[in-house]
Amino acid sequence: MQTRFSDAQLQDPGIAEANDILRKCVHCGFCTATCPTYVTLGDELDSPRGRIYLIKEMLEGGNPATEATVRHLDRCLTCLSCTTTCPSGVDYMHLLDHGRRHIEETWQRPLTDRWLRALLKWLLPKPALFRLALVGAKLARPFAPLFPGRLSAMLKMSSASISPPSPVDQPGIHNADGKRQMRVAMLSGCAQQVVGGDINEATIRLLRRHGVEVVIAYGMGCCGALTQHMGDEAAAQKSARANIAAWLTVKENGGLDAIVVNASGCGTTVKDYGHLLKGDADWADKAAEISDLTVDISELMIKVGLQNVNLPAEAATLGVAYHAACSLQHGQKVVSPPKDLLRQAGFTIRDVGEGHLCCGSAGTYNLLQPEIADQLGQRKAGNIKATGADIVAAGNIGCMVQISAHSGLPVVHSVELLDWATGGPRPASLDR
Predict the structure, then answer these.
(1) pLDDT tens digits for 325-351?
(2) CA 4 to chain centre
(3) Number of domains in the chain
(4) SS3 265
(5) 297 Cβ partners below 8 Å, 6+ apart?
(6) Which of 43, 48, 57, 127 is the most buried (most CB within 10 A)?
(7) Which of 248, 267, 302 is the last residue of a domain?
């Protein structure tokens, strides 16, 4: 793609990076076939190619964002299916970050939009407050039809189970069972503690059983994905610095073989810390070090090797539909490890049609774009039900909540099934 940035504009590192990304696009349109919003809406401007043109025009002109540009960029799920499809290696994720940051710097959103985004950025990274909010939402849920679309969508989230605070999410060390083979830090996640508390407990049991010492670092918090996707790069960088400092302290006081993440949306962000802070001389090298240490739980378990498998007879009869979270398959390019592990454990895996398409959760997307999210959720649920599976396995809490709401099937994290197959308890979500 030809660009026309001035020499003065290219002195800005952000513009220079956007220019390099834009020039890789060859207009082929392969991305349109795999883009969930284009497939759903049929509008070229709701495709990656269309959004690339909008970002190019906005940045080249140096003009404030327009209402139309904001609408089409806001509709992007950041699922990154387009990056998997693109033959030219266009770095759409970071280009979109530049576009969203420009929007937040130049566009005055409507008051209700600003209020909702501020609320989400304040509330979701705070498990105690989020848990309390969900309790209140459950009480208000019968009145959801009386509320506008976005507020109604928030109330629908209250259908998810609410997990009580778990001791495993507090700072501390969980010793390996037997001889220690590895020492890792684990990201606890924010929303996951509240609506999927069993996941962290299952992860720690599984790791300990396989000789892995798990550290929950003091000072660790939100990964920063929430604010990054809303265009608030400064807030995302602040979260990243806090986590980097926490994990480097762990490394300095006993060593660290890996940082394990069991929420793939968070994992994609932490693996990108090196890019997020590359312009910060004080933090760039530290961020790159943390990114290099970060792995999804499935990547670590493939390396460790699944041991002492003794699948309960009940589990062996279950058909498991595996949902590949976008942040895992497209964002991190982790495709086979989760399914390989589940098959090694003895589960019967059923592949889901249109597996490349997003379920519609995408962080806060189902709250900010509820109509499109619902269409994608229903489409995903239909493809899952077509497999005839008994349960659904996934590697990201947002996907799990979304699929559960639309499919009515029990949805578990893959790690809960691996824990069950190696001596852990039956996943509680199978009974909900």
Answers:
(1) 999 999 999 999 999 999 999 999 999
(2) 34
(3) 4
(4) helix
(5) 203, 260, 261, 262, 395, 414, 415
(6) 48
(7) 302
